[in-house]
Amino acid sequence: MELLKQKIVNEGKALSDTVLKVDRFLNHQIDPQLMQEIGKEFASLFQESGITKILTLESSGIAPSVMTGLQLDVPVIFARKRKSLTLVENLYSANVYSFTKQETSEISISSDFITSEDTVLVIDDFLANGQAALGLIDLVKQAGAKIAGVGIVIEKAFQEGGSLIEEQGIRLESLAKIASLSKGNVTFEEEETI
Ligand code: G4P
Ligand code: NA
Ligand code: NA
Prior knowledge:
The protein has a single domain (2-188), classed as Rossmann fold, CATH 3.40.50.2020. It has 5 helices and 10 strands. The protein has helices at 2-11, 32-46, 62-72, 131-142, 161-167; strands spanning 13-14, 20-21, 53-57, 76-79, 91-98, 103-110, 119-127, 146-156, 172-180, 187-188. A 6-stranded mixed β-sheet has the order 4-3-7-8-9-10, sandwiched between helices. It has a two-stranded antiparallel ribbon with strand order 1-2. It starts with a helix and ends in a 6-residue tail after the last strand. GO terms for molecular function: xanthine phosphoribosyltransferase activity. Residues 32-157 form the Phosphoribosyltransferase domain. Belongs to the purine/pyrimidine phosphoribosyltransferase family. Xpt subfamily.
């Protein structure tokens, strides 16, 4: 997605060989126009998939998911990372290990919102080692729902998340695929360094 790549080049910052900072439009300040275009892109990619629900993870997955839900006219559920006062019974939960934080956290959704009748699109802001996406896929499976695919805003294609998802035979659509972040330069897959 050209607009997104331009935004990454113009406003993103490679903090190291592995971490891209995009606080100016995705992870802290949010660009609503860009999120709307991202929503249209995911909606057009998955419009023939019979999606009934979108599942994401708080917090940065919510903005692109809501815009996609608006386009596809389906509800959006975000899995919670912390225990909620009101989300106490009939939960589906999965453990997600973070390589960056070196800790395992439990993500949960209420069983009220995804059922075996649903076809679910999983969306997240970043795909790195894939643990969050695999956790979300696990929740969809616990609900007995069908997985239409995974939509990612920014995939770090040099990490293993993409292959872990595709190994499961699940469709993966990433709007920007980063091949490398070395020396502060963002290189997209199949393109030269910008
Ligand atoms: P890992 O597999 O590389 O160990 O990372 P992990 O999925 O555990 O991700 C930890 C957090 O860091 C996630 O956000 C994830 O989206 C984010 N993340 C991973 N790689 C990058 C990166 O290169 N740049 C940025 N900006 N974020 C990255 P989170 O903690 O769930 O935060 P949020 O959703 O509340 O914003
Ligand atoms: Na994040
Ligand atoms: Na995230």
